[in-house]
Amino acid sequence: MSEIIPIACDHAGYELKQKVIAYLNDKGFEVKDFGTYSTDSCDYPDFAHQVGSTVNNGTYKRGIVICGSGNGVQMTVNKYPNVRCALCWNVEIAHLARQHNDANILSMPARFIPEDLALQIVKEYLETPFEGGRHQRRVEKINQLLN
Q: What are the phi and psi torsion angles at 44 (to 5°)?
């Protein structure tokens, strides 16, 4: 059985989301599309929360969110304690987000990266393993509350 990747976007990310879904399907992944389903103006949290909550509770191992800047959806999903979402605008950032930070949700800025780069970022995010070691200790400290 192939891995299921949950994905969500707002109106600004809709067209890129469709390209990412096609790419994921072509690579053998199943996709759970939480919307939005058009370029009609919408509120990104309505869709991003669905990816954040399902990665947070372990329904899905990792996910993808997309909006115009990538910031709004990233801020939304990072409200969940078990989510480590990284806003990635180039391949190296995606690589390091996985390798060093064990990012489990990828956020992309649809208005600022071309489609071919976005697909390269998705590929890097999906193929890069978490390095562990000294990075594991750091990742474990992310959710520690400071007094």
A: -55, -35
